[in-house]
Amino acid sequence: MTSTCIDIRHLRYVVAVADAGGFRAAAKALNIVQPAISKSVKDAELDLGFQIFERSASGVTPTLRGRGFIDDARQVLAQFQRVIRASRQNGEGTSGHVIVGYSALATSKQMSPGLEAFQKAFPRAQLEMHNISTDTIMQSLRAGGIDVGFMMSHPSVGDPEIAQLPVWKTQIGIVTRHGPTSLTVDALREQPLVMGVRENWRPYRDFVDAACLKAGFEPRVVDEAWDVQVIFQRVATGRGVTFYPMSAAESLPATLTVVPIENFDAELTISMAWSARTDTGLLRDFRSMFS
Question: Rounded to the nearest 10 degrees, what angle do helices 281-288 and 112-121 cross at?
Fold first, then answer.
């Protein structure tokens, strides 16, 4: 059998480039220098004897053979993650480990009963929680980095190998530091908005843009931030207001409140997602707590 230079690192870098759509974005996501990724991918292509990616000024696109290699690489990485987890569990004497990713939009009291019921039913199982974006949840499910994700449903968020189950719906309101108990659409037209950076909040920004367009106006975004804590901080200092799920009212800082928007048609669906390829009995038990 012909020897190969390809190892787990090469697979991880190839998948990162495919998910990020380019070498620079992949390097940023992995927090490493771009030349290291470029060289590893080039070495993998030389070893395989075909191009994994077509390069262009606008980014990279997997070739036909490259897509097959990337799919196989995802499976290998997912299995690698499961082996490491299982070994750690054996050493710690636990009976299972569920890694959950959840977007900021899903941080609400709707998650708590299911999580508590699972921990009561499986007291020796480890439950690990990570707050990450919806796009990152999808990438992590494909790569095996997490087992289950709670994220917003959106037409642009989908994968034939990632199952999604709607678990709750919520109206979108406005987070403000003071003011009326509700807002009208007309009043909202003039409000300065603080929103998440589109790179990290892409599906939600698209959702809000569509809802505002339907209501007949364009959101006046005056400030953007990467994470929700900074968004809330800027709202608290008077930079503007922000759209947020009404269901997350209890998770807001004490200085802020979320109020409904009259005649604003924006209902958000939060779904639970998991990889159909890597499903297990413990994950099915976990999901049953939310059905």
Answer: 130
Each residue's pLDDT tens digit, 49-108: 999 999 888 778 899 999 889 988 887 887 787 667 666 654 454 467 888 999 999 887
For tokens 């037209």, name the residue: 189
- Cα–Cα distance for residue pair 87/222, rounded to 1 Å: 49
Can you give the residue range of the structural domain that contains 185? 95-291
Model pLDDT for residues 112-130, shown as the tens digit of each residue: 999 999 999 988 888 889 8
User: Is 63:51 a contact under the CB 8 Å cutoff?
Assistant: yes
Structure tokens at 163: 């199952």
Residue with tokens 């994968």: 159
When divided into structural domains, the chain yields a total of: 2
Phi, psi of 202 (to 5 degrees): -50, -55
Helix count and strand count (H, E) for the chain = 10, 13
What is the domain-level CATH number for residue 35?
1.10.10.10
For residues 287 and 165, the answer to whether their CB atoms sit within 8 Å is yes
CA distance 151 to 140: 12
Q: Kindly report the pTM of this predicted structure.
A: 0.70
In this structure, are 171 and 41 located in the same domain?
A: no
Domain assignment of residue 81, yes or no: no
- 141 and 248 fall within a common domain: yes
CA distance 146 to 129: 9
Quick: pLDDT tens for 128-165.
898 888 988 998 888 778 899 999 999 988 888 899 99
Close Cβ partners of 247 (under 8 Å, ≥ 6 residues apart): 108, 109, 110, 168, 170
- Same-domain status, 55 and 148: no
- Nearby residues of 233 by Cβ (< 8 Å), 6 or more positions away: 225
